[in-house]
Amino acid sequence: MTTRSALWNAAATSAAMLLILLFVDPAGRAPEWARFMARQHPAIVHLPIGFLLFGGLLAAFRRWQKEDQPGRVEQAALVLGGWGGVAAAAAGSWLIQMGGYPTDALFWHRVLGFVIPLAAAGTVLANVSAPTRGLRGASWTLLVGSLIVGGHLGGEMTHGKAFAAEYTPGMLKPLVGDWPTLETRFDLSQPETSSVYEVIVVPILRTNCTSCHGEGRTKGGLDLATADAIAAHETDTEDDPLITWGDAQSSLLIQRIVLPIEHPRAMPPYPDAKPLSHADVELLRWWVDSGAGFEKPFSAVARPEAIEHLLGLYGLGDILTGVFALDLPQPDSSAIAEIKDWGVTISYVAADMQLLEWSGQDSSPLHEMAVTDRIKEHVVSVDLSGGNASDADVTRLGDFPHLASVDLSRTAVTGSTLAHLAGLEYLTRLNLYGTRVDDAALEHLANLSALESVYLWQTNVTDEGVARLRDALPNAEINFGE
Amino acid sequence: MSIQDEARLRWAHLQTRRHFLKSFSAGVGSIALSSILGPGPVMGASSGTDALDAFATGAPLGNDPLLPKTPHFPAKAKHVIFLHMAGAPSQHELFDYKPLLQRLDGQQTPPSLLEGKRFAFIRGIPKLLGPQATFKQYGESGAWVSNHLPNFSRIVDDVTFLKAMHTDEFNHAPAQLFMYTGSPRLGRPSLGSWALYGLGSENQNLPGFVVLISGAAAPSAGASVYGSGFLPTVYQGVQCRSDGDPVLFLSDPDGVSRDMRQRSIEAINEINRQQYEETQDPEILTRISQYELAFRMQMSVPEAMDIHTEPEAIQTEYGVEPGKVSFANNCLLARRLVERGVRFVQLFHWGWDSHGAGESEALTHGFVERCKETDQAMTALLSDLKRRGLLDETLVIWGGEFGRTPMLENRTGQDNPFVGRDHQSDVYTMWMAGAGVKRGFTYGETDEIGYQPVSGRVHVHDLQATILHQLGFDHERLTFPFQGRDFRLTDVSGRVVNEILA
Fold first, then answer.
1. In A, which residues are within 8 Å of B75 by CB distance?
2. Structural domain total, chain A
3. N or C: which end of chain B has fewer CB within 10 A?
4. What is the DSSP letter of A164?
5. Which domain holds residue A427?
6. Is residue B344 a contact partner of residue B334, using CB atoms and an 8 Å limit?
7. Chain A residue closest to B390 (CA)?
């Protein structure tokens, strides 16, 4: 290609772009045929991208081969790509007239859409006439850079912001500035020990507030970085306090984040920062309304249905406590099958939980150690009621570390071996009605502080024995059948 | 022609239209089977769906669809006892005390309260009717209970009252269907059937869903309120009687020994099995397991149903009337059945339709009789379950299909010595106890005359969702595919009433 034809190409491209710029008024109304063309913009636009990137690859290869002169294919790709860009720009300009695109991304997409055909024509020209390699390189860089940025902006407008980066592999995420996914945002694995403040509130404040209020900056004198700072905050007299526990409406923290975005005091300030999501507002509101403060553990705060639902949308299932929070491997299915063959009913407590319930009138399978030891970690409930259970069985039950419920009612158990249950940290329910348990046996229960209910109707225990047990276990309900 | 080609041609000649139809229908049958049975109620349960999987693939026959299954999450309730007061008892004479209604007794109802309202029987402008009972507060919870329930008032701290229940229906049969099947029309499975379908039965020798009926009549909606609808019929309620043969047609026919009975059932089931192999009709599996269950029940049901073996003191506590059909007998039976692992026990006690059109429906006569028939027994049932540790895992529910108006119903307009109330679907009272439900708690509130709800409304679908929740199910996931869509008890609504859960 000669310099002369490259000049003509550049002039024609410029003229075409000028025509588009002058004749397509962004605020106007596209004619019917143009509307059809406009909608083809996403299809048209990929053709020049392909040509130009192909040309770019050829140029890079040529540079690598230390070849200075551009080949004919490279120039042809640039010319075709440039004119494809003109067509895409025309279609895109009409598409803008039809409206519906976010303005800030659109502005730069449009600018780059105009830059690309001109840069392509410029590169054609530079390829044949530029005196230095540097100028040609700059021309190529401008072209490819505009392509990537402009293309990305276009993709964002079509598919939404996080579309491309959504499935970035974990190790690359910091590179694209990605936030943790919703599921990992709140860590509720320890609901009984971690506070609402630490698992819910801190992550929300960190994403929305602390870049200005905390972390070195305390705009408006507000520091939300630590619990102490929040608690110590003093508000101007005409305002409500930062937090009024139990009353979110009268808390400045909540008032500011629910103001309409155009309100001058709305936080975070729009358009420099995004408003809080509905879910975040509701979770903060719940934190304040519930009066949970900074210490109250998550599991101790009542969750209204809306909050449960929101947490559910975050991928957080039911909050499990006690024995249900145990994370165990799958139990040995061959052991289960064998125990079932001995007439015991073994059932799973719930789907996706590796916990088992044992019930059967014959207690002898408990002592088949070789088999039952394989599932003893998994058994949370043993029901031997109305069967042949004896004191030796009670001794054996002490080996099942996660038992939460033991039913020995209507058996010949005397309770002399109940001391063996002392190590069962989860044991909340013990049914001994209709057994030969007496006051002496009850002494063994005094240390089982997890117990919530004990059944002693129709046994040999006396009022005094029951009274002593009630003293030892003030939180347990002792049912004596009265 | 090679020998293989010849064999193939010969085989093709022998394939007749009948062969085609047979293999075709078996194919359709197995498609239908898997679409009827679907995946088990619980997806991905490691053991729970064994029975249904085997059922669906048809592989090891004789695997019982009633074997215990795994719920979605840990169940608080392993059993349910539903005490249905058929005919709809008046909340104004039992739990929903309104002093203002007493003061307004005999006054005409203001038109503003009647605008846009439709009643089953009331026409024109009715008079308000004050409570036909005296009320006192009981227990630490201070629940109001009328003088008609002297025994029950002792145990109010064990129950949660739902004071603002509401339903969509104001006639008995549709309202009862609505309460049990989630739809006012026929054809849906009942609550007990859903429970059994989801959880299976703990006792393979007794039906998993037992129905006990007392009072002068069966529920108006008939057996559909405990039917299995489109679920396999193995899940339907079995009506047991406390007098005579507990289950009709269960005992051996005259001149047939138990041994002969066993051999004939084995033969019948063998034929049924062969039929199943050919047609893959799931109802044949149901039939097989029902024959087998019936045979096992011949031994276990009379034992379970024999309330005379209970100690004298227990019989007195319930107020059992031996040899009669009574609510008290049924309450004691309910406890015995639950103790033996029966999943769902449904009681119906008829006679609460207190319109006041005659003595038996008068709030001052028939209604008081019904209270006497039930008060002692339902109190004994709760206390008995409690001291045995069974109330921890048994959900007890009491209530009617709807409530009654604060207005006097006078159908004829003439002088009537009896007082009664009309049907009321907007608000009525139920109570629940046990299995993770709060104790000594009242949810929901009505206005000053108990006519409209003020807060804490609970719809019938919400109640159903809550019952399923306590049984370990997400009511939105316990579904059954039928006629092209997944059906569930709560249809397209229902909210678990978390407020009443401990």
1. 349-350
2. 3
3. N
4. T
5. 333-479
6. no
7. A431
